[in-house]
Amino acid sequence: MWNTLSYRNVLISRFLNILYPSKCPLCGNLTDGFIYSPICSSCWSKIDIYKGPSCEICNLPFSSEYSRVCGQCIKNPPPFSMVISYGLYDGVLAEAINQLKFYNVKRLLKPLGRLLLNFDLPEMDGLVPVPLSIRRLRERGFNQSLLIARVISKNIRIPLLMDTLLKVRETPPQTGLSAKERLLNLKNAFVVKGNVEGLRLFLVDDVMTTGATVTECSKQLLKAGAKEVVVLTLARASMM
């Protein structure tokens, strides 16, 4: 049955690629699988779980295998208990995320979301997506963190808490700001509307860079009574 479905999917992909030909933005070859389009299946197969050394709290990649906790987490322990990320924000994974966010390629949602199903995730009470402001949501048309969380929720049957965390204040872009400036930029930008009392929660985002966004979101969830927050992201930036 699986082979029949797989063969059928290949034929459908080839047919669609004849009608709507595209080139892989990474290697320049013709796209050979509609579900990953415009990324070709060969490039997609290069997306790997990051297995190198990293901070056991914020998951920041290390160059040394002997380090366990980064200096930032020692100096300012974050409100979340840990970060689980599939890979580094680089190469094919970064391109796939950018195609989803900035080029509206929503067919990448399922294969991206399913990457996080490769982990033996801890038992939690709910999935909370990092929210967008109303203006940003209208501009983009969708919240990628919410859609990724929905894929995970459907596959591991953890409740998706869609409107529990809201972004109520429009903030300037974080690009170019230091870690401290990013935290100040996001202060009082998020509020909790739902009941999270005593719940252990996954906070879902697409990419974690300095951690300012997930830190502020986690603070608000814990302040509202959540028992624990574990951050779940597709990618982790290699530098803070």
Task: Give a short summary of the structure.
This protein has two domains: 1-46, no CATH class; 48-236, Rossmann fold (3-Layer(aba) Sandwich), CATH 3.40.50. Helix content is 36%, strand content 15%. It is built from nine helices and six strands; from the N terminus they run αααβααβααβαββαβ.
List its traits.
two-stranded antiparallel ribbon; Rossmann fold; 240 residues; four-stranded parallel sheet; 36% helix; 2 domains; alpha/beta; 9 helices
What does this structure look like?
This protein folds into 2 domains: 1-46, no CATH class; 48-236, Rossmann fold. The chain is an alpha/beta fold. The model has no long low-confidence stretch (mean pLDDT 88). It is 36% helix and 15% strand.
Low-confidence stretches: none
Rg, alpha carbons: 19 Å
The number of domains is 2
Strand order of the largest sheet: 1-6-5-2
Helix content: 25-40%
What topology does this entry show?
Elements: H1 2-19, H2 41-44, H3 71-75, E1 82-88, H4 91-103, H5 109-115, E2 126-129, H6 134-140, H7 144-156, E3 165-167, H8 179-186, E4 190-192, E5 200-208, H9 212-223, E6 228-236
Parallel strand pairs: 1-6, 2-5, 5-6
Antiparallel strand pairs: 3-4
Helix pairs in contact: 5-7, 8-9
